[in-house]
Amino acid sequence: MKFDISKVAVITLWMRVFHCIGQSNRPAILENSQSLIFALPDAMGDEDGANYMCSLFSSNYCLIGYVISRTQSARFPHEEDFYDFWEMILPMYRDLNWFSVSRTFNFELGHCCNYQSTVYRMFGQDRGVSPAFFLEKVTNFTSHGKRLNSIKADFRRDLCVNIIQTVGFGTGSLKRRGGMQGVVYIFPPDGDERVHLFSYNNIQRELQFDWFKENIICEDQPWICEKFPPITDYHDFQHRRRLLSYNLISTYNDSDV
Known about the structure:
This protein has ten helices and seven strands. It is an alpha/beta fold.
């Protein structure tokens, strides 16, 4: 079976992914960072955006992909790389919540595998990484070496909060895009009473991958917490996180905003 992706579609998706993860599209990226990127569903968001698209398929999260900022080896692209990755990811994309959420591939929204394979081409093949290596990275939910290093948010003036659109966990310093400096972050409202709040200055400490994994990812995919359990001292941290959320919610509810 032959698949054809035009250069225009690849470039368009490249721009959408960079917009989604909150990184600059400037050619020089000095830091060697890697990040597992997730979109948060937002049914009230832009209908052409990944967050709205995600809300059509999950109430918790959608995997965007794995981003590698710099070339990892001198490996040359193989002609069959794109199709090899296609065949690898097809049986498992639903188990990862890795749905196609790009209007670039409007014909396969919620499905596979032009979107996923193009993400591999951009951030795997073009970085000297084989399909198997990239697949290992995108399916590795271990907590070791994963710290919040990417966040994209929109500032909501009426609520005076930064609504988080995407988060990334991996290596490298934290990169922020959008939002208002100094303003609390929240996950998109989901219609129930849960409110996840995170302070602006301490979000790396408060929004840890273990918390995100147990409370967001594993709500949809319990097998991930079974295969990649949280760290042993996580539940003590979780207790502190609940207290922090309670204090922030109380403060927010008592404000005049």
